[in-house]
Amino acid sequence: MCPTCGHCKPVEEQAGCSTAFPSEIIPNFLYLGSYDHASRPDLMRAMDITMILNTVPSAQNLYKNTFTYHTLGAAWAPTDIPGAHRAFHESIAFLEQARAQKQRVLVHCMTGVSKGPSVVIAYLMAQMGWALESSGQWVTERRRLVKLKPEILAQLQAWDAALGPRQPIPIAQQNNGPVGFPTFPELDKSILL
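User: That's the sequence. What structure does it adopt?
Assistant: Structure tokens below.
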């Protein structure tokens, strides 16, 4: 990683999965990628991405005059479950703002493998009412590079327990229906408290 700008080499291609573009998690809304993606304004503009959620406080937001950024307030430690939950709440608020404004948003960490995906998974769990396994499956089917660190998975398991019972499988896959992204329900504001 560059000590000046925080830029790093992109994750090498794995299992035939190209990392040239961010992964589309929710069509025309939510994308997941790396700092390399966020540092390419031409790519972001070509994909109509206007908002960027940076999950790595030490990584610079390079194009503040071009994109609307939100950087998570502080890095959360591997054993800091309350800190992770604060970060998830903060992320949900920003993503809901983007959705309400009908904007496309990129969520990124350094490589798009663990921390960024955890935020996206936490968002799906809270917003869509899906269980951890379903949310994780949805994300990994769309970004095969995802490999959550054990401590991140433990934070998501605690988040899953805190949210309570939800749909065991994505709504779009129930009854062998077409695979796609369902309409968003209204966000339960109590999870933001």
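Residues 23-177 form a domain with the Protein-Tyrosine Phosphatase; Chain A fold (CATH 3.90.190.10).
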